Amino acid sequence: MTTVDVETPRSPRRAERSGRGINLEKWGWIYMRASGVVLVVLIFGHLFVNLVAGEGVKAIDFAFVAGKWADPFWVVWDTLLLWLALIHGANGMRTIVNDYASNELLRRIFKGALVVSTVVLLILGTLVIYTFDPCPDVSADQLELLPSFCGVGA
Ligand code: HEM
């Protein structure tokens, strides 16, 4: 019988485990698959409703977004899309950094930058969704951009 020698991975630090405690690497692996399944629905639902249904892509403007976010269903949809995709993407990038950044300092810098950018984008994105004002004060020539339920727009 022939045997094959498999090279030791370049980042073996977490390979040895005591068997106690939470295995974060395992839960990260499960998260990528579970969020991937949900993201298929969220992403293709998002693309269909925004680009295909009704008038299609031509309908997208401020009033279109305001109209969607007037409905709690789309607020929850977009919040899930934001959080699941951003954490999925960041965790995927973490895997890539662990695989390819062999310099310990660089690896720490990349992963630090990933955490900071992910947290900042999650906070900013969530603030945008939940503090969005569909009927802001605008100049007279911009009134037509507002959704009809503001009572002044198109
Ligand atoms: C249709 C929705 C998606 C599905 C089904 C999906 C599925 C997956 C799965 C199963 C993995 C793990 C692959 C592995 O461990 O070998 C993965 C990795 C990854 N995903 Fe996604 N994903 C989706 C959307 C996204 C989005 C929107 C982003 C960006 C925000 C993203 C970024 C990544 C990255 C960076 C990796 C790591 C790739 C690697 O390890 O080589 N994915 N994805």
Can you tell me about this structure?
With 154 residues, the chain is an all-alpha fold. The chain has a domain at 28-134: 3 helical TM bundles of succinate and fumarate reductases (Up-down Bundle). The protein has 4 helices and no strands. The chain is elongated and about 75 Å long. It starts with 23 loop residues before the first helix and ends in a 23-residue tail after the last helix. It binds protoporphyrin IX containing FE. The site of protoporphyrin IX containing FE has 13 residues, from helix 1 and helix 3. Protoporphyrin IX containing FE (HEM) binds next to helix 1 and helix 3.
Strand content: under 5%
Residue stretches low in confidence (pLDDT < 50, at least 5 long) are: none
The biggest sheet amounts to:
none
- Name the shape in a single word: elongated
Instruction: Please trace the helix and strand order, writing H or E for each element.
Output: HHHH
What's the mean pLDDT score? Answer: 90
Give the name of the CATH superfamily of the domain at 28-134: Fumarate reductase/succinate dehydrogenase, transmembrane subunit
Write down how many β-strands occur, each being a DSSP E stretch of 2 or more residues: 0
